Batch of 4 targets.
Target 1
Amino acid sequence: MPIKCIAFDADHTLYSINSVRAYNETFEFLSNRTGFESEKIRRTWLNVVDGIKDSKDPKKRSREYSTARALELLGIPKSKSGKRVKEALKVFWENVEVKANPLARETINELKKRKEVVVAVLSDEYREHLKKKLAKAGIPEFDLMICPEDTGEMKPSTRFYEMLMDITRINPNEILMIGDSWVRDLEPAQQLGLMTALYRKHEGTPEFFIDSLKEIVDIANGKIFVPEFFKSYDIRGKPPYLNPQVALLLGKVMGSLIPGRLTIVVGRDTKQTSGVLEKKLIEGMVKAGATVIQVGMGPTDFVSFATNHLKADFGVMVTSSHLPPEYNGFKFLYQEGNGFMNEDLAELKRKFMKNEYSRASGVVKKEDVLEQYLDMAEKNFKKTFSGIDSKVIVDTGLGASKYTAAPLLERLGADVITIERKRPYDCAEEKNISYLPKEMIKAKADIAVSFDLDADRIAVFDSMGEWVNGDELFCLADKAIVKSGDKVVASIDTSQMLEESTKGTIIHTRVGDPFVISEALKQGAILAGEPNGHYCFPRFTAYNSGTFFSAVFSAMAHDLHDMRASLPEVSIKRRKFEVENPKVVIVQLKREIRKNFKVISELDGVKFKAGNATALIRASGTSNTIRMIVEARTEAEAEEVLEILASRFFT
């Protein structure tokens, strides 16, 4: 869906107005025409504006209405004020000073070079005055300018956008509307299905915004929205690439992904924009004829459980997991509860790109399955442990774990202290939750558990306030759950300490939870995971569950520190390198490594022996990054080998 039309709101998005002089001249003009003091007219006008600024009637928020109302309060009836008001507003526009937004000027100039992109502006009244002011400010003429006088009504109105489509003959999903007001500019545009982006983030508005008008030039220069947010395992992105229109179309495609009337479970995390995206996603699914079961806010593993428990065809979780606040996205789940594999995500993308979906009429239902989720978690926990006798700090990061972690831990006997604190969502980075050891001392807690936004990751500090890394957590979960003969599925980047400490059989997969959990279901594994805080107990639900493993680690809290000391001693060093094309780089590296090193695996990237150390070099599934992991018996050796390999391959 290339963008064929960029439409701007002129007011503030393209230029700023210095209106002080204009208003002074206007009040002086009215003073001469009415006999009232200019200052008295100004005060009356300000009182009117203050009284109607929150009015839902757009006509009342217009300059024409407020000026006429001010004159009426001063004793000039409406019948006699009309002509004076029009003349006064003409004076206002003649005296208004326009200063161009420098980025806007640059952006418009760039867009004008591309003949296939229509540049439109939807503006306030007095077209000719605006044209002159904009020209003087250095902003070139637009292909199209639509004003209230064309539509017959004041903003906000869908008529602007209806006229835009009528005149240009461009489809709504090929038009991007840029505005600085959500209510005035973007909501009416969204009603007709236009793509929208908010320029400048205003307090109280949803988080769909663009950082710079320069991004619009990139879009016009041939970038297509879709590849920006379809990732290796799910959909993640930020506006303008990911927006409610994308969610609407995605819902339609998802609702008709396979023939027949589908039942789809939908849940979301706690982010404000997740509610907006969920609403449009469900709207699209219903328009495609699906039966949607809304299960509300909760972690991704909760939606996974609900999908399987309710025997739905698919599940969708609205979340961007651990990514920053401006991002959002969608995770897609099979009936078993595990995430979509590459081929099915590719099919979803193909249908999305081609606008392929059915048209029917579906329904929305709401189901509360939280108690069933907690019951199932408790039942599976008690297959290994009798209960929890520790004091636990639960750090939600304002995420979805607030609905599941503390309730489960309290059920199992834990003394729980919940911390609701704004912080980066990624709990797998120790620096993001470095405040927890102090909170543990203050509360005399035995353990602290922390979660990302959708609670599929967990991080832990032990009873001594020491950070437990992801590989150690995997080994500790293994010690608690795995018995001789059990199968354990682990991503290829998992430390060799798991192999050395387990009683079970380790089966390695590519990095990425869809590959890990799919293999776990296939193998009948009792445990699956990755060293980034993702751990799955498939007999509970087929998804990574920070909630379930918070109970597992809390039950071990008093012994956790000593158990860590008994694990095999290894040191792991990681580094990442930004590259233009990771896949090409990996092919080149494999060629060189095969010639010079002993290759252990090419399951995902290449894992090889480098002296006494083991190294893994692989392409990231979510960014233009090559990741390198080196593991050795000592920190010094791991660091030395990492430096040698980095210098050899990435100088």
Target 2
Amino acid sequence: MIKNLKITTKILIIIVLTALICGTAVGITSYNQSKTTLFTSVGNKFTALLQAQSISLHDYLTLVREDLKLIAANETTIESAKGFIQAWDRISGEAKDVLQKYYIKNNPFPAGEKELFNGGDERFLYNKRHKKYHPWFRRLIKERGYHDIGIFDLKGNLVYSALKEGGFATNFLNGELKDTEVAKIYKNALNEDSQHRLYYAPFTMYGSGNKAPASFIATQILSPKGDLIGIIAFQIPIDRINKIMDISAGLGKTGEIYIVGSDHLMYSNSRFSFEATILEKTVNNKQVNLALAGESGTLIGRDYRNVEVFAFYKPFNFMDKTWALIGEIDIDEVLVPVKKMRDHIIIIVILIVLIVSLIGSFAAKIITNLIDTAIGDIKKLEKGDRGFVIKYNTRNDEIGDIGKALKSFKQSMIRAEKRDQEYLEKLKKARKNAEYANKAKSEFLANMSHELRTPMHAILSFTRFCIKDVAKIIKTKGIDRDIIDEMQLNLGSIEDSGTRLLALINNLLDLEKLESGKKELVIERADIYQVIGQTCQVLKSLIDNKKIKLICDKPEFDTNIDMDKGQIIQVVTNILSNAVKFTPEGKKILISCEEKAANIIVKIEDEGVGIPKAELKDVFDKFIQSSKTKTGSGGTGLGLAICKEIIELHGGKIWAENSDKDGSVFTFTIPKKQKGSKNDGSKT
């Protein structure tokens, strides 16, 4: 399609495409560089924010650990633990039922404010101890921001809880909360080798009734002598961690930073969720998995909302737990400045293409006008006009070169036409002479053949009469035998020469008729295998004299075909007699027939002298003989030429090859049905 366009259009397309490609390349390069720069900038900002959040979180949790150590070793804590455990042991009945009824069910303060109740009748030892120590613990969780503080005895009982929630007074070894994370760290803290060690339980939904997110950190309460008294645990408020993570400054419209635990649950609320996501939302994506595996970095992937984001991930280690600190911002928001720049680049590229197109169109028009002028001059030359003047051959550019070449071409054409005219006259004269000579040759051959045929018949007849007369003389007169023998020999030579001369004449006549198209085939349905057999029988004496073994394979298919039987006999005779003539005594000649599609293929293979490879293509030419056979072998070189004409007149082909046994192979094909015969199936 493009090759059919005019040069003006092609030049304009090339210019526009070049401008478009260059502009697009510059635009893409600028876009990618800006995108990379923007990603780097956003990455640096988020990395800094993520680091700041990590430090804040680390500082807070470190403070919690230090607080726990200090409070566990505090004298008030040690005394209160002893007091609560002693009071617990003196409670008559089920301590859990008694304490939950007194401090939860009958607590005069509403839910969420149960910690405001200090205790009742001091005749009840637990109330007395509670009034003494509870205000200190209540003030501690308020000032430090802890959700709750609990004290366990060595039997698994939560003997004190500042908030008095559902787990208060429950046994964590065999009660309903025995399988919680709190129970696990309690059991770990009971070990004798756990002195001064801290144990952390990750955030879970904790509680026996209305469960809420909770995380615990615990350690032993030791007496001044180092004896284990009990276990103290802080319930770390997840709200505090959530507030640390809940920042929006510098995060844009879609940016957020959150924490994911090793259980793939969010430990902070999503900025974009109206419902709480803490311990409710599972996040299992590439950035979280990489962070939990201890790696830090950035990537483009999907967030928990299945939105494509630019993600920043960092591991955060607390105690023996690893959290994933994740920062994310939507790719669409990150790319807003780049997209604006892309739009500007597109507009600039379009303007450049338009301007270049206008300039290119003007330049292309100038060039193509000159080319059109040159094309017009060429068309004039094509129509035979040689009188016009080429005006642009004086230019110094490529158009000038075209003009100079065109002028030279014009002059060459004038000279060539003059030569051609002269040559044409000579050619006409030569053709006329050739036609005359060819006609004279044909007439000569016809006349000569006719003139030679008649006396030759007479010579042969009289010679035969002489031979017969000589024979009679021998029987009756008794003339000298030697004279008679010599006469017979001479007369025999006359007969042989006459016979050869007659054969030559017949060949010349046949060839002339075949070449001139005067030879007509007499088509009949005949068996080509029988034709071959008849020919072999005719030449049997020659074959037997040379003791040649003739093998003629009988085909297993129908060998009846349309042919001029006499002409095909002549073909087989010529080829087979040559094979006999040039095959040494005692050798073999093989004749075979094959069937291929609508043709019969006949092969005559001998073990004779063969034909030089360079001469194979010429053996069917008139008066041509192989260099291996023409010396002393006789023949005129017309037999194979006649074979070729006869086979081609039948619509077949004939060729010669050398066999593997140093002999030659002559092959010819004949269609089974001749066109126009009653057997070809066509309508005439």
Target 3
Amino acid sequence: MIFGLAAYAQLPFEPLPQALIGVALALSAAIAMARRFRALPVVALLGAFWVGFCLLPIHSGMFGTPMLAFPAYGQFEARVDEIISANAEERRIVVSGLVPMGTTRPVAISRARLLVPAEPALELGDTIFGRFRLAPVPGPVLPGGYDGQFHSYFSGIGAYGSVIGDFALVAPASGFDVSRMIESLRFGIGARIDAVLDGDTAAIGRAMVMGDQSALSDETRDILAESGLAHIYSISGLHLSIVAGGVFWLLRLGLAAVPALGTRLPVKKLAAIGGLVAAAGYLMLAGGPANVPALRSTIMLALIFGAVLAGRRALTMRNVAFAALAIILIDPASVFRPSFQLSFAAVVGLIGYFELPRRPVKGQSGWLLRIGSTVWVTAMTSFIAGLATLLFSAYHFQQTAPLGVVGNVLVLPVVSLVIMPFAVISVLLMPFGIEGAAVSVMGWGIDRMVDGGVLVAGWSEGLTGNPLLTPVAILIGIAALASVCLCRQLVADAGACGRAAVDPAAGPRSAARYSGG
């Protein structure tokens, strides 16, 4: 399916809808007849390729927009659809329904992203007025670079712009709106964090709690990128796993600790439901479905907890494939975004590594051994994830973090044990107005995280580079990850045979155990 998307993106022309439908009908007939000739797998692969090929045209028809070709100026009324970020000086918002006023010429775009003043206060659904300066969405700076036009088109955003005068709130939103309530909650939480913390500490806190990275300084971004810690302030699988997994663990522990409940209720399944609710709530705080990395991670967690509810194994390549299919069907353009490629590359690499055959680990005694084991698992997790995403990050960002493993080993315990737990505690205490101490502890953890980033970035000085890779690098990375997915059973069988050869007394059962049988 992904190869179908890539093939469509490389076409120099737009295929006719009749041709797309005709090929789809032919493939459907071929699938119906394939069972007789035992060619169903091949025809199914061709069908998946064609589905991927057709997804972008379908998505374009549903969500695409005309793109502004030339700058436009004038007075407009518009509806506020989304508040991307806000600070004391300005806000970035997305508006729709642009209505020209007076002698202003109309524009054919569906939506526009605007930079507007901080006052008056806005909510989703408000109608605003102002003199707008609209400009075409910029394309890639370098060949093969980030294409803002491509991604804006599939988001329905046809222009970027700013307010140059007469900005006013014409009519506030009316009626009950869940998205408006969630947006007010998000920025209310951000204001509570700003009341306790300041500077980049507050900016990172807002980024990790509500997904707003707008106030983070370029200097801190560079430090965290050089030390391999840039993924920490972007809400994704790490944060959602800590929050949802923590809720799951606490609920399971609490219910099991009460004999009357632990013996009568399905404790594990109830804890899984609690984890699902926590993941969904965190997704809403992170910006909802518009935050694609958070949405992708939430779908993955839903599959994991769903497997727990169904009594099945939770973390498998099959679940990763289901999550990828769901994201591709919902937002096929995300396949070309760095966040999609980096997230799934890391997850596939980690599952592939930890499912390799290995000797059973005996229970470890002593706190030193447990600490050593935790450090080793953290280091290996960081190393495998970094190795799996190396080509993708070098291609998209022209930057690598050679000591990223060291940075993650130093910092992840602080993130897991201090920052995220106290972030959750602070949000739970905000309705009572007593979140100050918890936010302060979270801020202390953020400062230690940045200190670790500064230390590792200093060690990395002279080691980082700016590699320029061709698209062939992406194909190599995809092929490598595909080999991890497709050849795991071969590796497991080879490990089982090797184990049986070294230890004949192990017998068939040991071989079956090592090969996953």
Target 4
Amino acid sequence: MLAILHPLPSIFAAPAWLFLLLPWCVLAIWLLIGQRDRVAVPFLPLWNNTLGAPKTKRSFRAPPLAIVLLLLAILFGIFGAAGPQRRSTIGPVPVLVDRGITMSADDRLRDGLRMVRSHFPSIETIPIPAGSADRPVAMDTGDLLNAAIVEHSKDSALAVVSDQAVERPWITVMPGPRPINNVGIVSVSARSSPRAQAMVRVRNQSDLKTASVTIRSGDATQTQQIQLPPRDGEQNYFIDLPSLADVVEVKMQAGDELPIDNVAWLVRRQAWPKIEAIDPLPAEVGRMVDVYQKNRPPAGNSTRVVVANDAAHLPAGAPGIAIMNGGSAAPVAPKELAIVPHELTRDIDWNALAPSAVTTHVPVGDWTPLVRAGDRVLLAIREQPHQAFVALDTTSAARSAQFVVLFGKLFDWAGQGGDVYATDPVHNLGDEWKLIATDPSAERYDPPLPGVYRRSDGALLAMSAIDVRFPRFPGSSRRDVIILTPVHVTSFRAPILGIAILFTLGALALVKPRKRASRTPQFPDV
């Protein structure tokens, strides 16, 4: 069953306080009609007991004004504590449509859109990410969805079609979709030595017991039957192959409800280096190191590249980069630049970096200058091992995009190491990447698709829709799509409590201090 959640109007935020109205009513009745009238009693005749007790009748008698105000103060205090409010849904509202990979299972996206459009034919739908609202994407959209909720909820109310938990506290979450029977690949890796072998980590979110895993690489193919772990469990499986080519395809046959996370690809590529600072670095260089490592995480066999603030601090026999930042910057005319063709100088606009050149000494040793400005050296290298020094004022150089290009090239060049088999999560790519291999299960998804991509220079890139986690909502067996609808709440608690305080102050103002009785008894004259 599909459901749309519309919060019903609620009169009180804390209705339990209304139970105090019962003792308040009893107190009010007692004060109004439950007291005996005062009767004048003759004093002297009582000595002879000649008068009978006067008869009184219970009747309405208005209490003092201070008591009335106090009763009203208590009454308004009870209602104020109960939190009277007015709740109303705000519409029509835009609907964020989550097109993430989990919404592609069990036709959640299609069914959710059908339900929304049947209730709100003219409502605005906003696909996350942008594209056709009717087609999913094979990527995790959790961060994109929460960012869109923050952006679109600033000026208006909002509805969300998703099966993910969201971070906005004002959204009421209904019981979620039924559990999906899914067996998916969590991670995959491969190595060619000491023998060709692939490792596949599998998560079982189903009651299935067995599956088969097939690995293809070049002309080599290997299939292995595996015993799946219990529901919500994970397990590693190691599969040997005769050899490994540049591309490895891993495919699992399990008969589950989400085939797209049953296939993954690996491509052989150079392992990104591990960058390590051994000296305090300029802030701009430190940020470059962080960005580089985030986008190009090192592998187990990555080369260690040290970064220092002086070429003399670079360890012998180890790749490294020295940032010669201690000199004074001096203008450089473009005609002064002498650039040696090299992979580090190619595709860089050195005219944009030349104004940041500093006057510094050239390190002692077998350094080869690549960029000169007169007698100053902006960039020099040595090949064994790969080391470089850069003489730039990094504060001013960082204002140019060429600074990023230069340091990306330096880290890549210095950290040239062994090969590694790797895959990336599905993300957007530039037009220079062309898809050369994918799986038939990806046909229902919008780009970017999982698969293998090749760039014009021959570089390979693999993207895989793996490590898919379905949110679990205990106690739900329904086939629901979450449609979250915020409400506008107007609270009357503060003004009502303010009235109660005013009544209390009025009652206190009317109370007169009681006069003390004289201690000396007064007797009438006889």
